[in-house]
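Record 1 of the preview.
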Amino acid sequence: MTYLRSSAAFMALMMTTALAAATGALAQGSETLVVDNAFQLKTADPARQFEPTASLVLHPVYQTLVTFEGSDLTKVVPSLAEVPTISEDGKAFTFVLKDGATFSDGSPVTVDDVVFSLTRVRDLKGSPSFLMEGVTIAKGATENEVVLTTEMPDPGLPYKLTNPSLGILNSDVLLENGSTATPEDGADAYLASTSLGSGPYVITKFDMATEVVLTANENYWGEPPVFAQIVIRNVQSAAQQMNVARDASQIALDLRPDQVESIADQVNVLSAAGADLAFMFANMNPEISETTANADFREAVRYALDYEGILKIVGQGAVQPGSIIPSMFGGALTASQGPSRDLDRAREALARSGIENPTVGFSYSSDLTKNGVSFSDIAAKVQADLAEIGIIVEPRPAPVATNTDSYRKGVLEMSVNWWGPDFPDPSNYLLFGPGKLVGLRAGWAEGSAPDLDALGARAAVATDPAERAKLYEEWQMMLNDIGPFTGLFQPSITIASSKSLAPLAYNPMWTVDLSAVTLAAN
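->
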């Protein structure tokens, strides 16, 4: 059997597909889905993208080896390959490719395509390259096996592989069009005008300023998609509200809860806790602050905070994390397992600290608003809460660039900051431990908590899901007791959609799986 692998044949197919979409002739469907989103978009190259809009757009185009189903981030499910077999030492992951998977030009997805695509992500040195750092990608024992080997045990690797950045591309066509799988790789421009994936859609227009158009893939090897075309438009929230209310668009992704409330009777509303997390820390380095380095003082702060009051500021749908791992990830604590307001305990801890009339500086980004939440409002609430037990908080607002620079240098006394997951696995949060990336930013020196380090080390290599979750829970409970961090809130993600659509599922990795959107039952 002869397969199309040339760029000329692929371009011809793309022109035919675009024409069919324009005339409504596609067999897969005749509907157009319009999605409004405030763009965060830089490239159509999966190996270079790490922005929310890019993940939204590329997920239906470039399939990964494994994926998630709906909103469930606790387990991976098959996509181009079956769920991997993991070696006893937790270092080798064997994936078996499914039979019949093809790219949009009709050619088969092969092990060579997988090896090249994942190696390219690693060696391109783009934003997502860290996901494959230290990973060797090679052919397996049979023609449909690929083996990923890590330097250290990494049970979180399958979860990393769900990221749209690790989508599999047609390597022959990519090589014909400027790819070298090095930092000098020149395929970025080519991928902005075409697409080389195996997903249910192909890109027929990619304009980073205005819109991206996806057209149903006529050669898709799975169930045909519902919509013949998906148009993702760059629209700010006020216009999104009007568009979805009058059905000029079917999905609006960037509305605040109050915007949705005013049109709630006209649309379907999805409100869910996001995976981004706001946390506060008190610096443990006595050279930065002898006050915040005092363990009793930090306990007083933890139990003086009015967590329920903070959630009211953040808005409907927000949740309090039990620690620093978001609520939807494996190993997360519930809010009831985390600290709650107890003013008597807070005052007793402050008395034990021996610090009289403590005054601390509280830093935050004055020009940063996330999901409609201003950190200025959070800082004012923290100031009022701590004042109730006699702690004087001096607000220290700064532009986000200035505050971020000081945060990364580890010189802030107390601060509220934002953490978005790099990948949907609890191992990403071991960075909050002593001597690790975020721990050092809070003045937490390496070797200062050996029992916590030991728990984290065990959690990092555990392969049994139940054991793994239990270890991360224990690690966070100890971190809550002795560490500098306090999880404050996960803001709500609010999505409005047309009543003509079936209810949507939110997924922090790609917001909404556009290829899974269906029409409402009559």
